[in-house]
Amino acid sequence: MKHLLYSILGLIAVSTGTAQASDVVTNDKTEEIVTTNVTPETTNVTATQNTTAEKTGWEKALEKLPKLSGYLQTGYQYNSLGNHSSSFQAKRLRLIADGYVTDNVSFRLQIEAFNGISGTTNGRGQKNLQVMDAFATMKVNDALKIRAGQYYLPLGFENYDLSPATLETVDFSDICYRMVCRNTYAYDFIEYGRDLGVMLMGDLAPSGKGFNYLSYNLSLSNGSLPCKDDQNKSKDLVAAVTVRPMKNFNVKASFNWGEYDGTINSVAYKNQDMTRYIFGAWYNDPQGLDLRAEYGHIGSSKDGNAIVKEDGFYALAGYHVGKWLPVVRYSLYRDKVNNASLNNYDQILLGLTYHATARLKFQANYMLSNYTDDAKVSNNDKSSSSKLQIMGIFKF
After folding, report:
1. What confidence category does residue 227 fall into, taking pLDDT thresholds of 50, 70 and 90?
2. CB atoms inside a 10 Å sphere around CB 269
3. Tell me, what DSSP letter sits at residue 212?
4. CA geometry: angle at 377 spanning 335 and 120, to 5°?
């Protein structure tokens, strides 16, 4: 771990980017990272004359370096599912570098140091390092930006417009985890909603009121795992349109077509067409009401038989009260191929977030999941389970 951090810092130190330390790199997925402005402030010399202190060589050098930021999410979780589990967790440790290659070309590097999702651990079950983001973005104008590398796909609000640092709850919904993070191999290989490819995006209708009426994304990617070359000729297509009829409110529709490997009655099928649809609406007043709902569907079939057929929905409501954000979320998921799966549930979440400072927030979530009759058999005939999470996010 030390060697990796030193290597990253070494690369940053020799960077020739031209970003000002007080700039914000254009990026669609807000990470809620606080940066420090190292540009000297203007000093008042007399009542009628202001002057700016001359920058030192060190300050000029700092201005050319990328901004290094990140966060740690850690805490405690209890889960009544199965034999019950109680554990302190380090859910995420992110290291992020944002900067500029030229005045109109920015880049992002994001490393995930704690990820313990099935299929991502080593032979001893320990959590591994993972490259999450490694992309460059060229801004031609507001209507056209070109992104290349490994980036987060514009499927739904949660995967593209939110991050663990800005999410109202500790974890995302299963629309994000099971649909967006689905890959062409199997469930135990996680793609984190990322892929390698090229994406066009932009804002087409500025309102003149601080927001854009219409934005779009069009992505062409491998449809494989992060950090892995494609193994076939097929590519994944993702298209998304966001409409903002008024301030703080937007409606988003996203679509994906790709190919999927699946199994029916122990028979393996390769390169089957797979589609994903996610539709949602979101109203968020940073000083008041927060309402968001999304519906998602994923499907793949062979000769009229479903390989994958799943539907998901959630609706979240919260209200910003000073530093506090109480939330309630209802969600459901249905796997219509695997009826006995514990992914067939209705769930209620009660949560509370406290923003102690701009760099520190605490979250407590309680979830009660009620399973369908077929699914509860997989839970020792128990019709429900509960989970408690108490987490802190510490940013730098």
Report:
1. confident
2. 16
3. B
4. 55
For residue 166, with 0-12 CB atoms within 10 Å meaning exposed, 13-18 middle and 19 or more buried, which class applies? middle
CA separation for the pair 223, 110 (Å, rounded): 20
Q: Does residue 20 contact residue 38 with C-beta atoms inside 8 Å?
A: no
pTM, two decimals, is: 0.81
Which residue ranges make up each domain of the chain? 72-395
Tens digit of pLDDT for each residue in 311-354? 999 999 999 999 999 999 999 999 999 899 999 999 999 999 99
Is the distance from CB of 344 to CB of 375 less than 8 angstroms? yes
**Distance of alpha carbon 209 from alpha carbon 246, whole angstroms:** 9
**CATH number for the domain whose boundaries are 72-395:** 2.40.160.10
Q: Name the DSSP letter for residue 226.
A: T
Q: Exposure pattern of 293-325 as b/e (b: 16+ CB <10 Å)?
A: bbbbbbbbbeeeeebbbbbbbbbbebebeeeeb
